[in-house]
Design goal:
Blueprint: H1 14-27, H2 29-46, H3 55-63, H4 67-76, H5 79-112, H6 119-127, H7 129-150, H8 163-177, H9 181-187, H10 193-204, H11 208-244, H12 253-290, H13 292-310
Amino acid sequence: MAAAPVPSLRPLGIGDLLDELFAVYRRRFRTFVGISAVVQVPIALLSLPQATTSPGYYLYALLNGQFGSLLNAPRESSGVASALFVVVMVLALVGTVLELAATSEATAAYYRGDPPSIERPYRQALSHFWPLARLFTIMVLTFFGLMLLAIMPLIIPPLACLSFPGATVLGIYLFVSWSLAPVALILENQRGALLALGRGRSLVRGAWWRTFLTLVCLGALIAVLQLSASTLSELVALGLQAIGAPGATQQPTWIAAVASLLNNLVALVIGPLYYIGICLLYYDRRVRAEGYDLAVQARALRQAATATEAV
């Protein structure tokens, strides 16, 4: 059987990038969903005790005038549930870093022509965890500082015309300039967070507005998919309520649990799309700015020639 052809790298317009995103996701759907499931399934199971905090639960309570139950919900939560919530949040933060790294590596493996795997991308992700953690810490602290600067007019009103617009513009500029830094750190085996930030900025240089528009389109597309799927899952939960417990004055816990699991399923299926899209944008910038596609083709030709000589 002939080997499957290795996908080629090429410059991508915004529409082409979105098309390629779904093509890559479709061709290795099980791999990407499997990578996402490693993170999302434990979170889904550990989140079940907080199922009554789902949007559907609150919607049903509001529609039935159960304001008292909503106000008393925090006091009724146990210490164990609170501790479990903290565990889920920590797991979500760590899982986001690992899922980003593993999905980026799986996307790179697709373009290298490597066979699908879930284990190998996670091995790579684990080897890059601490550099990525430092990178995200720097980014979070930077944007948190900008947020404090933006709300400074609440304390010093005369700064309203300066601090809020300045912090907003700088935040958007840094978000776009640093958007490719995590992928660069992973795929280029960089160990320094500051080096990765510099590398991400250099890739965006000269194409900031194009990168900005691509990120906006990618974010809008995923937001629409996320909102549509989440709305559908809540409607399913409300339908189960109408069929299984039409006379109940409060949404049954089992229905809230179903709604929670459906929302986690949405995150499991849609979550990889953003990471794949960022990886494709990284490759697009390397192809346009550095001729990366030509370098890859030249390396492939040298490897083929070496293999022919060996035979």
